[in-house]
Amino acid sequence: MFKKILVANRGEIALRVMQTCREMGIGTVAVYSTVDAESMHVKYADEAVCIGPALSRESYLNIPRIIAAAEVTNADAIHPGYGFLAENADFAEVCDSVNIKFIGPTAKMINSMGDKNTAKATVIAAGVPVVPGSPGLVTDVKEALEVARKTGYPIIIKPTAGGGGKGMRLVTEEKELEKSLIAARNEAEQAFGNSGVYIEKFVQNPRHVEIQILSDQHGNTLHLGERDCTVQRRHQKLIEETPSPAVDEALRKKMGDAAVAAARAINYEGAGTIEFLLDKNGEFYFMEMNTRIQVEHPVTEERYDVDIVKEQILVAAGESLAGRTFAPKGHSIECRINAEDPEHMFRPSPGQLQVFHTPGGHGVRVDSHAYASYVVPSNYDSMIAKLIVTAHTRDEAIARMSRALDEFIVVGVKTTIPFHKQVMHSPVFQSGKFDTAFLETFRFEKK
Q1: Predicted confidence (pLDDT) per residue in 319-337, tens digit
Q2: Which pLDDT tens digit goes with each residue over 161-173?
C-alpha cells in the first residue's frame, strides 16, 4: 500500500480524496496555487506545496511543478481527482517514468478513450451500440456534406478532444453546415489544442445515462449501476440521481453489460464511467468514456455503500476485485451547488462567504471545501459544494432534498440553491419523465 499520496487537484475533490487517505492511514500532500492558499484542502493535508500563481496552466496544469512537489515530499502515488490533469495521458506517462503510481488508467488506456473518434472505433469492435455518423474525423466540407446526407439531419458536430459542450455545433439543415464546421474546428482548437471533429446523428430529446465501472489489474471488471445526468444546462450537469427513472432491470443489465465490454476492450484499470444517450424508445448509444472519477460519484457511493476513491487506491495498489459484490439500496440525488446567479443567466458569483451553513440529518451528505470567510476565487470552476441525499424511494429522496436545500444557507455570493429548490418542486421533474431539453422549458422564477 502507498505511504503518501499527492492529490493533484484542488477544492472539494482534493479534500474528498484526502479524507479517504486518512481513513486508510496514508499520508497526503496538497498542491495549491497562490489564490488557494486558504483553501480547506491545503489546511487538511499532512503537507502542502505551492506550485504557482492562480492561472491553471502555471499551477494545476503544470506537470513539472506537480512532479517536483511529489518528489520533494517523497510521495509514491498521485491521485488526479477530476478535471485538470485527470485524463491527461502525458501526465500519466510522466508519473510512470519517475516511478510514481498514477492512480488511474495508463497513458495508453487514456488515449484509447480520451480521443472520442478512437473510442468510437474501439467500442464498435466490442459490440457496443453507437450513434450513426462519420467513421472517423471529418476534415473538409465535402466529406461533411456526404456524411450528413447519409445520416440525415439534424446532426451534431463534436470535437474529438475535451468536453463540457465546447466545440459542439447542432446543424439542422445543409445550408448551416459549412459555417458550423469551421466554427466548431476553431473553437475546438482554441479550447483543447486539437481541431479534430466528427459528425453524429443528433439524437433528439434523449436522456443522459452513465454507468459506473471498476476494473482491476487482473482482468476483473464490474459495474455499479447507472446514474441519470439528464438535467443539464449547456451540456453541464446540474442534478444527478441513481437509479434512473427511465431504466428498468432489463435495460440496466444491457447497459451494464455494454459498459463492461467497453472497459474490457482496452483492459481498463481503475474507476471510469461509460456515458450513453438513451432515446425515447429505450435504445441506448455510446457517447464517451470518462477515464477518471466523476463529480457525481457520491450518488453511486451512497446507493451501493462503497467508497469509490478507496477502491481506486486499492486497485492501483494491485488488489483484486474478484468475488467483490455491491448491492444497491434506495435512491440517491445530487445537486451541484455553484457560486452562480440563476437570476442572471447563471453568471459566476465569486466573493467571500460571510455565512456557510450546511444541512444535516438522516440521509444527507455534503461534500465541500468551503467555509464561512472562505473566498470563492474567480479563476476556477464555480462549484462550492455537492449536496447528496438518499432515501428509500425517489419521492422520499426529492422531499429530503427539498428539506436539505431549505436548510442550506450561503451568504456573500449568489448560488444555485434557489434554482434547485424550484426544480425539486417541478411536476415534470417529480414525474421522472423528462429529457435533456427539460431546462429549455423550465422557467426559473425570480424572487
Answers
A1: 999 999 999 999 999 999 9
A2: 876 677 899 999 9
| Domains recognised in the chain with CATH numbers | 4-103 (3.40.50.20), 132-201 (3.30.1490.20), 207-441 (3.30.470.20)
Q: Which residues of 380-405 are buried (b: 16+ CB within 10 A; e: fewer)?
A: bbbbbbbbbbbbeebeebbebbeebb
DSSP string, 154-188: SEEEEESS--TTTT-EEE-SGGGHHHHHHHHHHHH
Identify the segments of the chain with pLDDT beneath 70.
163-164
What is the rounded distance in angstroms from the CA atom of residue 69 to the CA atom of residue 62? 11
How is residue 59 written as a grid cell?
A: 499551477
Q: Is 207 left (phi over 0), alpha (psi -120 to 50) or beta?
A: beta
Q: Is there a contact between 175 and 161 (Cβ–Cβ < 8 Å)? A: no
Per-residue pLDDT, 164: 67
Active-site option among 252, 292, 336, 365:
292
Written as nine digits, the cell of 169 is 455545433
Closest CA to 290 of 101, 61, 114: 114
Cβ 27 vs Cβ 5: under 8 Å: yes
Sheet of 4-7, strand order: 47-52, 27-33, 4-7, 77-79, 101-102
Pairwise CA distance, residues 92 & 78, whole Å: 9
Cβ distance 229 to 203 under 8 Å? no
> Is the Cβ–Cβ distance between 184 and 157 less than 8 Å?
yes
Cell matching residue 320: 483484486
Q: Which three cell numbers stand for residue 26?
A: 496514508
Instruction: Reply yes or no on whether 234 is catalytic.
Output: no
Q: Which cell numbers in the block locate residue 298? A: 457520491
